Amino acid sequence: MDFVWNIYILVLNALLASSQSAHPEKLVEPNEGTCLTCWVNMTSTRKWTKEISSGEEDLFVMEMRRPSAEHRLLTINNVTCNSGNYDLEVRQVMVGVNDGGYSCWEDSNIVASYNVIVRVSPVITMTGGNSASNVVWSAAEGSVEQIRCQISQAILPMTIVWLQDNVVRNREDMERPTGVLVNVSRELSFTVTSGVSGFQIISCYVYGAHIVNVTASVTVIAQRRQQQPTVTTENVTVKESTLVAMQFAIEIAVVGLVLISLFFVAVGACIWAYRRLARRRNQSTITQSYEVDVFSTRTRDEDSIRAEDATHAPRKRKDTLPATPEHTDSPVDTNESFYTPITEYETQIFPE
To answer: What residue ranges in 209-318 does DSSP mark as E strands?
Structure first.
C-alpha cells in the first residue's frame, strides 16, 4: 500500500513540476492571496521554506509554525487552500514582505517550488495635441507639440521609455520607493515631421519587475503648410540692417530739412529787420534833407526879398509916399504896411 502511495505521489509531483516548469512564477495582485500546492507522503518529514539572501528559512516543519511565518501571514492546510495535502496559503502579498521563492520539501528533496511575484497592469493614458482623440492627432508640419503619458497604479521600480517611430527618445528609471503603488505623469516635446509615410508614431512604454509591460501609442499626422519663401538668418539680418539704415537716413533728412527751414526763417527775419531799419533811416534822412532844403529855401527867399526890398524900397517909398497934411487934406494912415506884398509872397512860398 505504501508503495502504491509513493508511486502516486511521485506522479503528482512530476505533473506539478512540469506545470511549474511551464508556469514557474505565481503572479498576484498587491494585497491579494495565493495558494501554493504540494503533495507529500504524510508519513515522511515535510516542511515549507522561504528563500532568503542567506539561503533557506524554515516556515513550517511538519505542521509546526516557525516564528518567521508569523509576520508573513502564512498558514498551512487552510480550508480555503486545500488542493493538495500539504498546501501553503500566502495572504495579503506585498513586495518585500511575503513575495519571493517558496519550496515544499519531503525528507531532503524539494517536491514543489514557487516564485510569488507581485505584479500589476498599470493603465496608460496619452493626452495632448489639438484633438480629442488619444489615438490619432493632426498637427502642422514643423510645429513643436507636447504629449503627456499618464501612468496609474504602477509599482516601483519601473522604467519609462519614450519612442518616436520605434527610436528611443528618452528613458527614465524610477526605483524608489520600492513596492509602492504610484501614479506618475511624464511629458515629451517633439517636432512634427512627415517623414516618408506622412505621419509619425509616438509611444510610451513602461516595464518593471512588478508591472506587466504595457505601451500606449499615438499617431501624429503631419499637415503640410503652404510653401513659403525661405528666409535665412543672413537675409533677415541684411534686411534688418537695411531698414535701420533707411530709418536713420530718413531721420537725418528730416533733421536737415528742419535746420534748413530754421536757417531760411532766420535769414528772412534778418533781411526784414535790415530793410525796416534802412527804411527808417531813409525816412529820417529824407525828413532832415527836406527840412534843410526848406530852411535853405526859406532863408534864401528871405535874403532875396530883403535884397529886393533894399533895392526898391526907397523908390517905392518916394513914389508912394502919402501926401502930407501940407499937400492934401486927407489924413495919413500911419498903420499902413510897406511890406504887404512881401508878406503875401512869403505866404505863397511857405504855406502854413
So the answer is: 211-223
pLDDT tens digits for 267-283? 989 998 888 888 888 88
What's the grid cell of residue 122? 498599470
- Name the CA dihedral angle for 158, 159, 160, 164, rounded to a multiple of 10 degrees: -150
Supply φ then ψ for residue 156, to 5 degrees: -80, 150
Q: Please provide the size of the chain in residues.
A: 352
Return the CA Rg of the chain: 67
CB 27 within 8 A of CB 119: yes
Return the sign of the alpha-carbon dihedral for residues 282, 283, 289, 290. positive
**Residue 77: partners with Cβ closer than 8 Å, 6 or more residues away:** 63, 85, 86, 87
Q: Structure pTM?
A: 0.51
Cα 338 to Cα 182, 303, 317, 318, 350: the distances in Å are 149, 17, 8, 12, 20
Grid cell digits, residue 49: 521554506
Torsion of the alpha carbons at 272, 275, 279 and 280, rounded to the nearest 10: 70
pLDDT at 162: 94
Confidence of residue 304 (pLDDT cuts 50, 70, 90): confident
d(CA 57, CA 105): 12
84 CB-near residues (< 8 Å, 6+ apart): 12, 37, 38, 39
Diameter of the chain measured on Cα atoms: 225
**Quick check: 157 and 174 in contact, CB under 8 A?**
yes
The DSSP code sequence of 62-73 is: TTEEPGGGTTTT
> Could you read off the pLDDT of 119-143 as tens digits, one per residue?
898 999 888 765 555 678 888 888 8
